[in-house]
C-alpha cells in the first residue's frame, strides 16, 4: 500500500483525524497543541497521527491535502484545515456542528 493509499484509508475509516506533530498527551508544537485543545473542548473523539514518527507520512499528508503545514484536521474524510482555520471555525461554532453531525 502506498503512503497516499494509507493516508486515504486513515481519513476515510475514521470520523475525525488529526495529523499532528507529537501526540495528544505530548504535542511537539504550539499549533498541534492548540488543535488538540480545540478538539477536546468540542468533546470530539479523534484519531491522532504523529507525523514526526514517520517522515513519509509527514511529507505524504502535505501532498495528499495540497496544504503545506501541520496540523491538519479531517472530518468524515474531508480536509478541514490547520489550527488557524480550526480556531476560526471553533469561534463561530461551525466546528462543533461539523463534529456533532454524524
From TrEMBL:
**Keyword line:** 2Fe-2S, Iron, Iron-sulfur, Metal-binding, Redox-active center
In what residue span(s) does the Glutaredoxin domain sit? 16-80
* Source species, domain of life: Bacteria
Q: Which Pfam families match?
A: Glutaredoxin
Task: Tell me its family.
Answer: Belongs to the glutaredoxin family. Monothiol subfamily.
Q: What is this protein called?
A: Glutaredoxin
Q: Which organism is it from?
A: Silvimonas amylolytica
Amino acid at each position: 500500500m502506498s503512503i497516499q493509499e494509507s493516508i486515504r484509508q486513515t481519513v476515510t475509516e475514521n470520523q475525525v483525524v488529526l495529523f499532528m506533530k507529537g501526540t495528544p498527551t505530548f504535542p511537539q508544537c504550539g499549533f498541534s497543541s492548540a488543535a488538540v485543545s480545540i478538539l477536546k473542548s468540542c468533546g470530539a473523539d479523534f484519531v491522532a497521527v504523529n507525523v514526526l514518527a514517520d517522515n513519509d507520512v509527514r511529507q505524504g499528508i502535505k501532498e495528499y491535502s495540497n496544504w503545506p503545514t501541520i496540523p491538519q484536521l479531517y472530518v468524515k474524510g474531508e480536509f478541514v484545515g490547520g489550527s488557524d482555520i480550526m480556531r476560526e471555525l471553533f469561534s463561530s461554532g461551525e466546528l462543533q456542528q461539523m463534529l456533532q453531525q454524524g
